[in-house]
Amino acid sequence: MTTLAGHCHCGAIRVELDPGRPVDELPLRSCQCGFCRRHGARTMSDPASRLHIEAAPGVLNRYRFGARAVDALLCEECGVYVASVLQTDDGRLLATLNVAGVDLEGFGGRTAEPVSYEHETQDERLERRMARWTPAVLVEALPSA
């Protein structure tokens, strides 16, 4: 399958998604938490896919809210919410990608499924993320051309 590329508004944070299945089969969600609603987030995650996030030095703003278990990645320059990441106990990085924030091709015109996770316990939330989020790599370096 073709690698999909996108970036924040100013281009300081770039992403590449290697989808594990056809893009039209990847789940597209609209989380109903205050943070995601305020950012107009439309997110995807898929454990069979792979995500590479590359940020220019000094532009990555990590924001933690709620249970403070994940980092929401925002661009310091343009303010775009790019992804949320979770570092697992065994050192892996898992992510959910805001396809709207990085204008990722293949998702336009699709309706996102509204979801609410407010009734999950912390253990249930972690279990869901471990099962559904995308394996990721995060590199802080000058973005490649």
Automatic annotation (TrEMBL):
What is the superkingdom listed in this entry's lineage?
A: Bacteria
Record carries keyword Metal-binding: yes
Residues covered by the CENP-V/GFA domain: 4-118
Q: Which keywords does the record carry?
A: Metal-binding, Zinc
Entries under Gene3D superfamilies matching the protein: 2.170.150.70
SUPFAM superfamilies in the cross-refs:
Mss4-like (SSF51316)
Q: Which protein family is named in the record?
A: Belongs to the Gfa family.
Recorded protein name is CENP-V/GFA domain-containing protein
